[in-house]
Write a structure and sequence with these properties.
51% strand; Jelly Rolls; five-stranded antiparallel sheet; binds calcium ion; 158 residues; 1 helix; mainly beta
Amino acid sequence: MNGLKVLTALLLGSVAISATANNMSSVASQCMRSEKRCTIEMVLPPGVISWYITSQAAGNPGLIIRFKDDGDVWQEVVKTTVHSTDLSSKSFGDFIIDKKRTYELIFTDVIEVAIDRAFIANTDADTVSKTMQVAGEDGMDGDFNDIYASVTWFKKQG
Ligand SMILES: [Ca+2]
């Protein structure tokens, strides 16, 4: 294969992944550098969310989680910041998702985020939890340790 074919194959491959994505696997981020915020939008089914953030930054990075209610109005369920250069500041919590809704994770005081995911299935091959980890960068040094977040969706509550 020449370089163009390889590139085309890679692009088609990534399109295929996006097309089959669902729930938490749709995790493209949109960052607005001028406002120093990155948003990840996703549709989440009923379940329970546990989240955690920490920081090693001179700034004051944070996390907002909000959903669109039945009247199409955004409702914030999380709004917090973590101010520490040494991981000493942490913020965490949980909330219930009563029905399928559109959620946004908004990372503040960052200009870029990197995302990875892990899914857990039970012995019936049913996905019981999905975890997304996000590492945010607030400047130009590329260490991506300015905010760290772990957000897990559990299918079952209790
Ligand atoms: Ca940095």
